[in-house]
Every structure is written in C-alpha cells, then in structure tokens.
Amino acid sequence: MEIVEYTTAITNELHRTLSAVSEEQADNLIQAIMETKRIFVAGAGRSLLMIRGLAMRLMHLGFTAYVVGETTTPAITCSDLLIIASGSGETGSLKTMAAKAKDMGAALALISIYPESAIGLMADHVVEIPATTSKVTDSNVQKSIQPGASLFEQSVLLLGDSLILKISEQKSIKNQNESLMKLHANLE
Q: pLDDT, tens digit, for every residue of 136-178?
C-alpha cells in the first residue's frame, strides 16, 4: 500500500470511530470541565501524550489545567476534575490514581474503549471511544489496520480538539487563535 492509501485508511477508521462517540457523553464532560475549579489529566504511554494536548488547549482557553506526574502539579481537591485517558480503563497506576482522586472528593472522568472497566465504574463521567486495539480478541469487533492502540490514541487527540472547539463556542470565544496566543508559551 502507498502512504496516501494508508493515510486514507487511517482517516476512514477515525471518521467511523469518532462518528460513534456519544454527543451526550461529550457534552457531560464539557459541562464538568466548565464547572470545575481545576482540571487534571492523566494517562499512560501514548494515551498520556494525547491527553496532554487537551490540558494544553484548556490552559490556552484560560482554564487551570495540570498533567499528573509533572513536578509542578499540585494536590487534587474536592473542587477539581481528573480526566483519565485509558483504552482499557484497567491500567494499574491509573486505577490507583482514580481511586485516590475519588477519595479526595474530586470528580472523575474517563475517556476509554471500555466504559464498564474498573476506572469507568468509579467515574462520574465516561466518554466511550468505540475503537479497537491489538489486544481485542473478539472476532465481531472491526479490526484496525494500525498497530497497538493507535486508533484509540488518535481518537483521544481529535476528541480533545473537538471538546476545545465546543468549549470555545460555549464561552463565546470568537477567535480561538487570538485567545490561544495570549497564553501560548513565549520562552521558546
């Protein structure tokens, strides 16, 4: 297959997957973001890389957002929201983190393939991304041409960007790029 054919296949997979995301679930997550004091994001591996993009854009829109594990990330409180991106919803370190956030009284959101996972069952808000990974053995699930959990991870990034657009609309931000550049890193 040529590169353009792979790219077309990947974008077709993304379109099919993201078209199946629940608008209601996404809107509930947006409402939680809009109502919270601070937003913390977490994930593992490539899912962490993708959810970091959401934290950055939230900061650009004036939200207080942190990536769990960074040296300047403060303690979570009952006024905060933790958003976890986890394809499985079963990653050990993320389950521990979710339980700690709940113990502290924080709201918990999960973006996952498996809403009924351990983290999903703890979560106040779940956005299901009906992607597949190389770990899925169910023959009824449509497979991805991509390795690992690439389809899920890419979907997390694009969902995050879509959430940002909808939040910008709800906050009546007319020029996202102008707002973004006011808070964009300038020590580059």
A: 656 556 788 898 889 999 999 999 999 999 999 998 887 766 6
d(CA 20, CA 111) in angstroms, rounded, equals 14
139-146's contacts with Cβ under 8 Å and 24+ in sequence apart are 142/16, 144/13, 145/6, 145/9, 145/10, 145/13, 146/10, 146/13
Structure tokens at 145: 């041409």
Do residues 40 and 68 touch, judged by C-beta distance below 8 A? yes
The number of residues making up the chain comes to 188
Q: Are 185 and 56 in contact (CB under 8 A)?
A: no
Using DSSP, state whether 107 is helix, strand or coil: strand
Report d(CA 105, CA 84) in Å as an integer.
16
Sequence letter at residue 51: I
Encode pLDDT of 99-139 as tens digits. Answer: 999 999 999 999 999 999 999 999 999 999 999 877 665 65
| pTM metric for this prediction | 0.93
In order, the DSSP letters of 49-105 are HHHHHHHHHHHHTT--EEETTSTT-----TTEEEEEE-SSS--HHHHHHHHHHHHTT
Helix axes 23-35, 150-170, angle to 10 degrees: 60
* Residues labelled catalytic: 153
Q: How far is Cα 44 from Cα 95, in angstroms, rounded to an integer?
A: 11
